[in-house]
């Protein structure tokens, strides 16, 4: 699924068949996946891989899933889903106390796991879903749509990329050269004045007649000011 591109998931389980099944399934959904078969390997891999979500088996030889969870939660912003072979209230409470964000009992359906992963992404990493709200702007990269004051703007593909770049970098002065490089590409062979043409069109569509939204700083470039 396109909106999930770039989401990293770490799987830690000592059962190779489960690891392989989950790895293939999650990769088919568009996730980046790394696997480990023991807790210590999982901890070391997490430092390098920097996953958004860790799916941990509770019962593993050596370092169990509880300890892995505790250490991962200390290391940064990572969502943890615990897996267990039995539904023990005591285990669930222990995992949640250590910082686990969700708990699943084996056997479970892959569809349910996906639903739990989506929930964790929405709660922990909403920007990864492709929609960002900044001031009166809503940028939805999944639909390639930008809304301003709850009105979807009719934009060409280039207008979309230009306005997205300006909005995401709001408050910064962006030169024509920088805009050409980031929006049109470093190998663009046209004139810098193309930026002025597109800025004029965006102002019309934003009803920014007084240039208070997209400001021109003479000799420097453009800046979007959010209110």
From TrEMBL:
Entry-linked Pfam families: Response_reg, Trans_reg_C
Cellular component, GO annotation: cytosol; protein-DNA complex
Gene3D superfamilies: 3.40.50.2300, 6.10.250.690, Winged helix-like DNA-binding domain superfamily/Winged helix DNA-binding domain
Domain of life of the source: Bacteria
Segments forming domain OmpR/PhoB-type: 129-226
GO BP terms: regulation of DNA-templated transcription
Transcription keyword on record: yes
Alphabetical UniProt keywords: DNA-binding, Phosphoprotein, Transcription, Transcription regulation, Two-component regulatory system
Entry-annotated residues carrying 4-aspartylphosphate: 57
CDD domains for the chain: REC_OmpR, trans_reg_C
Residue intervals of the Response regulatory domain: 8-121
GO molecular function, one term: transcription cis-regulatory region binding
UniProt DNA-binding region: 129-226
InterPro entries: CheY-like_superfamily, OmpR/PhoB-type_DNA-bd, Sig_transdc_resp-reg_C-effctor, Sig_transdc_resp-reg_receiver, WalR-like, WH-like_DNA-bd_sf
Name recorded for this polypeptide: DNA-binding response regulator
Organism (species): Paenibacillus contaminans
């Amino acid at each position: 699924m396109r909106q999930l591109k770039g989401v990293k998931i770490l799987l830690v389980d000592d059962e190779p068949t489960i690891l392989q099944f989950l790895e293939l399934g999650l990769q088919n959904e568009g996730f980046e996946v790394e696997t480990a078969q023991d807790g210590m390997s999982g901890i070391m891999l997490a430092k390098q891989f920097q996953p958004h979500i860790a799916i941990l088996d509770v019962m593993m030889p050596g370092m169990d899933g509880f300890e892995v969870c505790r250490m991962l939660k200390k290391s940064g912003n990572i969502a943890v889903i615990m897996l267990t072979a039995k539904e023990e209230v005591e285990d669930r409470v222990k995992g949640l106390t250590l910082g686990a964000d969700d708990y699943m009992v084996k056997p479970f359906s892959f569809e349910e796991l996906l639903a739990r992963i989506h929930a964790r992404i929405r709660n922990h990493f909403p920007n990864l879903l492709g929609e960002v709200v900044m001031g009166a702007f809503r940028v939805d990269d999944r639909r390639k749509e930008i809304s301003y004051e709850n009105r979807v703007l009719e934009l060409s593909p280039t207008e979309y990329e230009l306005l997205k770049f300006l909005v995401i970098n709001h408050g910064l002065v962006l030169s024509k050269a920088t805009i050409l490089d980031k929006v049109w590409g470093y190998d663009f062979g046209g004139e810098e004045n193309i930026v002025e043409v597109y800025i004029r069109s965006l102002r019309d569509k934003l009803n920014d007649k007084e240039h208070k939204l997209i400001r021109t700083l003479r000799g420097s470039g453009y800046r979007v000011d959010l209110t």
